[in-house]
Amino acid sequence: MYIAASRTSDLASGTDRKPALKRVSANVVALGMVSLVTDVSSEMVTAVLPLYLVLGLGLNPLQFGLLDGLYAGATAVVRVLGGHLADRWRRLKAVAGFGYGLSAVCKLGLVAAGSSVAAIGVVLAADRTGKGLRTGPRDALISLSSEPATLGRSFGVHRAMDTVGAFLGPLVAMAVLALSLGSYTSVFFTSFCVAAIAVLLLALFVRDRPGAVDRAAVSARAAFGLLRQQDFRRVTLWAALLGLVTVGDSFVYLVLQRRWEIAATYFPLLPLGTAGIYLLLAVPLGKLADRVGRWPVFLGGHAALCLALVLLCGPQAGLWLAVVALGLHGVFYAATDGVLMAAAGPLIPAGLRATGLAVVQTGQAVARMLSSVLFGLAWTLWDLRPAVLVAAACLAAVALAAAFAKPVRP
């Protein structure tokens, strides 16, 4: 059921000027609220974790790259499983809810892990497992609750709400650190409490949209058969290749901190630059993708990240350069995160939507895990600037090749 229906002619012509929230379903808004609260919780941890591991526990860039890669790649094994089970059981909401719940419990695991790097690694892997289980079913719910012509807008609205949480999370983390006199344990426990609220919101306000699907059609063979479809296979392949040459968020913030010698007290504020731009541009770029094509906007986001990397290894010309780099990092996410799901969604049958989206996400997760390890190794062996320059060059080359490939029609 839509909050307010828009005429088909208006959607086609783009003449309807009602606010974006009026054009998306109530389910998308409810899922956005769940993601908002969840991201407050997760970004509280993300904002302080690099500082805690590198400065607090003394990890070198390679060690941090291994943990960051684990954090990004632990979802890979379970994304397809979560999507497949959600489609097979026709319980998208239930599988997503289990994933949200597992991630919430892992915040308590960080409290129990203390300063043990091995234990922290196990907890981070479990936390990302929860994320992997929930992401495919959640994005399938968004896709199945939206009109095909407005998928970019729906994902943009969801990602914008999600980013409000990403914006608030570091602020809450800083407030908790200040009130607790620098206690990371207090941050982790508060994060658990917030995540529990998100699980409750999901249970109360999100409606399942499984559709009338024959379970026999949702087999493992049918799921792997998606990769035999040329357009879907090419989208999955290029998304993975671009993920392989993408520098992870934590490394971007660590580079900023090293280059501009930003005080540890202000480190949790760095993600706010990314989140602020993401919040402003997620809906406009989602609408633009619906109009001009989702693949060009997706690649434009990678071009923004490439430019940000070039600025990071350029002359140390003042804090304004760091602000511009953070802004471009936000443009990257606004133009890629939801847009890729909007591009892949129409290529997948409704009964396999969670599975198919999870396949795309798995390719990205594996690639980004390898990317974190390789970048950490390059930083350790070559130092900071050469590692960033090589990453920027590789990203530019792959993005240019993907522009000629054009796996998604406008």
From TrEMBL:
UniProt KW Transmembrane keyword: yes
Matching Gene3D superfamilies: MFS general substrate transporter like domains
Keyword Membrane: yes
Start and end residues of each Major facilitator superfamily (MFS) profile domain: 27-410
Protein keywords: Membrane, Transmembrane, Transmembrane helix
GO CC terms, sorted: plasma membrane
InterPro entries for the chain: MFS, MFS_dom, MFS_trans_sf
Protein localization: Cell membrane
Pfam families with a match to the protein in the record: MFS_1
Membrane-crossing residue ranges in chain numbering: 20-38, 69-86, 98-126, 163-181, 187-206, 235-256, 262-283, 295-312, 318-344, 365-382, 388-405
Entry superkingdom: Bacteria
A GO term for molecular function: transmembrane transporter activity
Membrane topology recorded in Swiss-Prot or TrEMBL: Multi-pass membrane protein
Official protein name in the record: Major facilitator transporter
Organism: Amycolatopsis vancoresmycina DSM 44592
Upper classification of the organism: Bacteria, Bacillati, Actinomycetota, Actinomycetes, Pseudonocardiales
